[in-house]
Design brief:
Helix content: 25-40%
Shape: elongated
Radius of gyration: 26 Å
Number of strands: 16
CATH topology of the largest domain: Rossmann fold
Number of helices: 12
Distance between the termini: 46 Å
Strand content: 25-35%
Strand order of the largest sheet: 11-10-9-12-13-14-15-16
Oligomer: single chain
CATH class of the largest domain: Alpha Beta
CATH architecture of the largest domain: 3-Layer(aba) Sandwich
Length: 392
Amino acid sequence: MSHQLISHSPDLKRLKDEGYGIQIKGGLLVVHQIPYVNDKKEVQFGKLVSELTLSSPGKTGVPNTHVIHFAGAYPCYPDGSPITALQHASATQEITKGVVIDFSFSNKPGRSYIDYYEKISSYANLISAPAKALREDVSEKSHPVIQEDAEDTVFRYIDTNSSRANITPISEKLQGQKIAIVGSGGTGSYLLDFISKTPVQEIHLFDGDHFHVHNAFRAPGAATVEELNSNLKKVHYLHTKYSQMHRYIIPHDYFITPQTVNELSGMDIVFIAIDKGEIKRLIIDALLNTNVPFIDVGMGLNVKNNTLLGTLRVTSCNLAKKDHLERRISFVDQEDDGYHSNIQIAELNALNAALAIVKWKKMFGFYHDMEKEHHTTYTVNESQLLNDETAE
């Protein structure tokens, strides 16, 4: 992926051709072997680290910021005094796995940088000039051999969103997880939409239904007439859509039954987005027996005075809290409520899914969690959000 980006981006290709040791890592542009002088008048080598903005999956755009990071001691002039034109911030931190920076620098030519060649070469020239004044044998263009990491990413293109926001180490907390979504209807499809944008290892979809016209009005994105006429199973339709972004979405085009429920035992977490009480009971009992955490979502909507009202619910369970399930989750089929009619409620499906995703990310340390609630409800007509069932 990184080799293709470099070859298709004129600014990155120019940097590489001129001898800069560039590497794409964790959605960042890393430039190795930048010579500089430390406060002891010694020549050392550091790294420049820049955010990376893409105009398309295979080509760079205009840099989002003139600020750049540096790994190493603070660069100095030949006499050991600091280069004040660089000063911005000092904070040693790992901004993506394997990339630790020590400083952030701010220097621009009276305007924004036009591309990454101008940005990198400008900083490299400023930082390396004192070192080259002390030693003729050093250069920022030394054609260093960079050992590339294996491109074992779940995404088909680089996640520059996390790197731009400097939250890659936080996003990496979700890496390696195997996720199951049981039910690929309105809420289930939005769950997939959100999860597919995270670095989880696998996303398993379980549903035996077909994707019909009414599903198109409850799911994210827009289905084509041709897709609707293809009579695809829901999981295959969603797999086709979201595999364009995430490599490891696994469709299971059948319902969970006593014969298949054991397939959930190897998951890190299971999202339950179905309303069949008997099957829900089967799934939850199995997950409790195997200590697999889960999040159950649901909504109850009714028509009153020609308007919709009702409640959305997110109920979670893990080792810290299990005693609330019977009083918070209904195991009775409710075939006659408004949710089962042909009402277009995509925004409530999306909100129900978003609340569940926030809870999942809290459970795994992505978001700070003060209350550690395991039951959340949102009442539509009152716009009231309530948390309950906190873990002691």
